[in-house]
Specification:
This protein is mainly α. The protein is built from 13 helices and 2 strands; from the N terminus they run ααααααααααααββα. It has helices at about 1-5, 10-25, 45, 60-65, 70-75, 85-100, 105-120, 140-145, 150-165, 180-185, 190-195, 215-225, 270-280, and strands at about 230-235, 240-245. Strands 1-2 form a two-stranded antiparallel ribbon.
C-alpha cells in the first residue's frame, strides 16, 4: 500500500533517459498514400525521397543552395537582353517560317536544324601542337564569331561590311562601271560557301532531345561536368537561350594534357619540426 502514496524514486540514469525521450520523442509521421513521381536524372529527389522536412530544415533546399556556388550554375544564369530582342526574334521567325517551311517540313524541324547548326558552328576549346589544353583559346575568334543560324541579320550585316571594305571588285558584277561604283547603288551578294564554312563539325548522328525542368537540369550539368573536361557555352541572341557543348578534347593519339598552375599544400616542414622536438626530448 505504501507504493501508492510514496513518490517513485528514479536513478540518475533513468531520469536522463526519460528527459531524452521527452525531448527527442518519436514523432508520428503521416505517410502519404499517393505515389511519388521522380523525374529522370532527378538524383536529388531519388536520394531524399524518404526524408521529410523537420523543423523547417529541408535537405533538398540546403543541397540546392550549395549547388548555386558551383561554377556550373553560372553557365545557365540568364543575362539581361535588349528591349528589342523579342521583337527581332519574332520578325526573323516569321521570315524563316515563310521561306523554310512547307507541307513536308514543319517549323519544329526547322527550329531543331537551326539549333543543331549552332552546335556545329560553336568555337570550342582545343589543344595546342603538344596536346596541352589551351586555357582560353581563340579569344578574338570567339568574340568576333557570329553564327548565321543564331543571328542571321547580324551575320549578313557583318559579311556585307567585309565585302564593302574589300573594294569595288567584290561589290558589283561590272568593276569597270565607275558610275555604279560611286552612285551607291551597289548590290553585294553573299557567297553560300562563306556560310557553309561556318560549320566546324557534323552532328547528324547526335540529334535526340531530352526536356528537363529547372530543378533537374542543373543536376544534369553537374553530372556532365564530372565526365567531361570542357563545358563550352554560347549564349544565343534571342529568347535568352544558352547552348552548352560538353566534350573532352583529344589529339590524334587520343590523349590530352593539362597544366596545373596551383600551389600544393605540404606538411614537410611541420613533420620536420615534430621530428626535431622528438629528438630533443
Amino acid at each position: 500500500m505504501l507504493e501508492n502514496f510514496l513518490p517513485l524514486l528514479h536513478t540518475k540514469g533513468e531520469r536522463n533517459q526519460q528527459m531524452l525521450m521527452e525531448t527527442f520523442r518519436e514523432r508520428k509521421t503521416q505517410k502519404s498514400e499517393q505515389l511519388q513521381v521522380i523525374k529522370h536524372h532527378d538524383e536529388r529527389a531519388l536520394r531524399l525521397r524518404s526524408i521529410t522536412v523537420d523543423d523547417g530544415f529541408s535537405p533538398a533546399e540546403v543541397e540546392l543552395s550549395m549547388m548555386r556556388f558551383s561554377p556550373v550554375w553560372d553557365l545557365i544564369q540568364p543575362k539581361a537582353q535588349g528591349r528589342n530582342s523579342t521583337t527581332c526574334w519574332m520578325t526573323d521567325k516569321q521570315q524563316l517560317q515563310h521561306f523554310c517551311t512547307d507541307d513536308e517540313v514543319s517549323w519544329p524541324d526547322v527550329e531543331r536544324l537551326f539549333h543543331q547548326s549552332v552546335f556545329e558552328a560553336m568555337v570550342l576549346k582545343t589543344l595546342d601542337q603538344h596536346g596541352v589544353l589551351l586555357s582560353d583559346p581563340a579569344t578574338q575568334e570567339r568574340i568576333s564569331n557570329v553564327i548565321p543560324w543564331d543571328n542571321p541579320l547580324l551575320y549578313a550585316e557583318q559579311q556585307l561590311h567585309k565585302l564593302r571594305t574589300k573594294g569595288p571588285t567584290f561589290l558589283t558584277e561590272d568593276p569597270g562601271n565607275s558610275q555604279q561604283q560611286f552612285s551607291g547603288n551597289v548590290c553585294p551578294q553573299l557567297d553560300l560557301s562563306d556560310i557553309q564554312s561556318c560549320r566546324r563539325r557534323s552532328l547528324d548522328d547526335w540529334h535526340y532531345i531530352e526536356h528537363h525542368s529547372a530543378a533537374v537540369f542543373p543536376q544534369v550539368l553537374m553530372s556532365a561536368s564530372e565526365e567531361y573536361r570542357c563545358l563550352d557555352t554560347f549564349r544565343g541572341s534571342y529568347k535568352n537561350m544558352v547552348y552548352v557543348f560538353c566534350h573532352n578534347p583529344m589529339n590524334c593519339q587520343r590523349q590530352s594534357k593539362e597544366v596545373w598552375d596551383v600551389a600544393l599544400h605540404t606538411d614537410v616542414k611541420f613533420r620536420s619540426n615534430i621530428e626535431g622536438l622528438l629528438n630533443t626530448g
